[in-house]
Amino acid sequence: MRALREIRGLKYPDEFVVRHFFKCGLSERTGRVLELGSGVGNNLSLYLTWGWTGVGVDYDDQALADARFNLGDGPALLQADLSRGLPDLQGPFHALIIPNLLCYLTATEAHALLEALRPLLAPGCEVFVRTRQTDDYRYGRGAEEEPHGFRLDTPETGEAGLFNLFYTPQGLAEVLGETLGLTEPTVLTCRFDNVQAGQLVPNNSDVIVWGRMP
Question: Is the pTM of this model over 0.90?
Fold first, then answer.
């Protein structure tokens, strides 16, 4: 992997990915990790540093090019439109991280994707999911296309024209229970202000759920 100052794009893992990694003891063992929406590889870099092998999937050409530059030959990096389903993947995976994807999928697409993942995950696989809550700044800013799902009209966040689906903490936990079989998950919330395109964007609000496959 590259030295920190050479890394393109985000340089550090999501803070809640880091918390999950250490609180669930993933630094004490190794295995295979799958990240959906892997971007420039900043989250995968944490796992690779501790000896895991990884697979990252993303849609964006530039993000994948940056991830290959940042991570070298370590992980397999695949391009796919996850709204249409998974690429060809070979399990089992011992950790699954989905830190910034479900909000861009419809409820039907999200359910189908998660159900397709289940047979690829090893017993005891650690699962991490982060997505947007219904009290997020963007909620309701655009045309509603399904319950809690909007075609955004938020140029200040760079997402004008994109679909966003918002979850309640209970709702996300229920979806992961129905599709992956997670029981007794840890449910956390995170609210923060951000600066995007030089403008203050208040009340970004996320829900984080992690748990273990049966």
Answer: yes
